[in-house]
Amino acid sequence: MAFLDLSHLEKAFGAMRVVKDFNLGIDKGEFVSFLGPSGCGKTTVLRMVAGFERPDSGAITVDGRDITGLKPNQRSIGMVFQAYALFPNLTVAENVGFGLKVAGVAKAEAGERVAEMLALIGLPDLGARYPFQLSGGQQQRVALARALAPRPQVLLLDEPLSALDAKIRVSLRTEIREIQQRLGITTIFVTHDQEEALSISDRIVVMNGGIAEQTGRPLEIYNRPRTRFVANFVGTLSMLEGVLQDPATGRVSLAEGEVTLGRPIERPAGAAITLALRPEALHLGGGRGDIVLPARVTEVHFLGSVIRIRVETGGTSLSLDTFNRPETPPPPLGSQTEVSIAASDVIVLDDARAEQGAH
Amino acid sequence: MTRLWSWGALLIGVAFFLMPLYGMTEFSLKMRRGEYSFDAYVTVLGDPRFQATFGYSVLMAVLTILCGVLLVVPTAFWVRLKLPGLRPWVEFITLLPLVIPSIVVVFGYIRLYNTSSWLPLTGSVTGTNMLLMFGYTVLALPYMYRAVDTGLRTIDVATLTEAAQSLGAGWVTILARVILPNVLGAVLSGAFLTFAIVIGEFTMAALLDRPAFGPYMQLLGANRAYEPAALAVIAFAITWACMGLIQLVTRFSKHNRVAR
């Protein structure tokens, strides 16, 4: 059994079923992100783990102990909120020591622990400040220290970076990951930002409409999305609709012509199939992959280090990224060219789940 | 030109409020024929009944404030956190004391809690004092509730509560260590309003026959000329001191500075 085990969780608000048969096992020390659009149920699952919402059915166990019916203050779970939620009337040190004081930890011991936590978040000298005297990033670090001080079994992070500006967001997420690894604490991180989830997680659960669409390591989620929803939500993707001709060799007929993936596809011949392509899998010009398609350039967006080009091939629009090189300027709009793709870069979407995801 | 008009409006306003006050103060100093003196104040302050009734009312005010805070803070917190749909109803109920005259309230009390009733509160001095305190709490309810509710609006009650819960705190700890300190400014302004109401209240204290400051002022007003004016000036001074205290307290609560 996993350290934190969520089994068959269900939750409805009125007639709205926001979490449907949610199952997940998280190992001790693992960092798992819940990724999904707003309203997908990710925060509700987190709040059920914290004890702020009671599941309609299902069970939550931590280290073999069933905590489903326990009150939030009996669970030994630390939580960091999007809005920091520091107590405005207490200093930084008093905030960090709040959980220890409630637990009745002796003053000297609590003082040591607070100092240790403040050192951990890199703010050892700010103990006497009040929350309003800190920047957003500092406040969120204090909130993290406060959640960690009572040594919880599980750490929950509810979109902790959403209220911060872009630069601090990036540095703080790295810091959160470092602290999490140093302490080896089991962590759930809720976010709607795919880059955040991809960059710091051991595993990602992509959620949509109350269900877990796909659970996997970040590379797996990005490179091998199983459903249309996951493919669309994580990264940019172009899709080609086709019909499977030969399951053994992976030969698919598209509007643009036939392509052979050179690997078996577990679907009957004649089945409708969706192929998906990441922008970085497509290359301008022939000769850089097994599959070459004729294309016309329709849009060119200069993004700095990357140039994103949209081409049209057989009535389908594809996105492709190339690095900016001063000596090879991007092709002019409307010009005829070719795009090449390595067959191994083509993602075959699971269509049964894709239907669900599209709803 | 606009500036001139605004100064004019200000002057008229100031005169409107200050002239009666000036008249009253001037009159209160005229007890000794032909010269200004503090004779009226000396008489009032030296009257043992003044000291007794004022002391009694101050004590009642403090108890009323305690009772009001214990009643209103948890209620307003709970309504905001768990029963937001009930807010209009609770607001309506807390406004009722402004509509129902206190004489009606106190007659209701006397009928309900008289010596031949199931809870004969009026049968003992302590019981009657308690009844008076509850009555004062009701009178102060509109001000106390509104002040506390406004205070709660300035903090994120739900998230702070959840944060405290996840750190292991129970309801009493949350109320005492998180919610109350953060609405202390609001609670204090409600408390000072309560103080002012209790000090001047006449009807309830008179009908329950308690030696409060309100009936003493009325008695003095009916029998003397200069002393009531002196008493009114003293009452004004107390009120202003209360308002000054509110200002002081809010200035000293450091953590609130950013919100201001």
Automatic annotation (TrEMBL), chain A:
Keyword tags: ATP-binding, Nucleotide-binding, Transport
SUPFAM superfamilies for the chain: MOP-like (SSF50331), P-loop containing nucleoside triphosphate hydrolases (SSF52540)
GO biological process terms held by the UniProt record: quaternary ammonium group transport
Record Pfam families: ABC_tran, TOBE_2
GO MF entries: ATP binding; ATP hydrolysis activity; transmembrane transporter activity
Residue ranges crossing the lipid bilayer per the database entry: none
SMART domains on file: AAA
Cited PROSITE patterns: ABC_TRANSPORTER_1, ABC_TRANSPORTER_2
Listed name of the protein: Spermidine/putrescine ABC transporter ATP-binding protein
Native organism taxonomy: Bacteria, Pseudomonadati, Pseudomonadota, Alphaproteobacteria, Rhodobacterales
Domain ABC transporter: 4-234
Biological source species: Pararhodobacter aggregans
Cellular component GO terms, alphabetical: ATP-binding cassette (ABC) transporter complex
TrEMBL record, chain B:
Principal location class: membrane
TM annotation in the entry: 54-77, 89-110, 160-180, 186-208, 229-250
Keywords of this entry: Cell inner membrane, Cell membrane, Membrane, Transmembrane, Transmembrane helix, Transport
Pfam families reported in the protein's UniProt record: BPD_transp_1 (PF00528)
Assigned GO CC terms: plasma membrane
Any one biological process term the GO annotation gives: transmembrane transport
Name listed for the protein in its UniProt record: Spermidine/putrescine ABC transporter permease
Subcellular compartments: Cell inner membrane; Cell membrane
Keyword Cell inner membrane tagged: yes
Membrane topology of this protein: Multi-pass membrane protein
Domain ABC transmembrane type-1: 54-247
CDD domains, per the entry: TM_PBP2
The species this protein was found in: Pararhodobacter aggregans
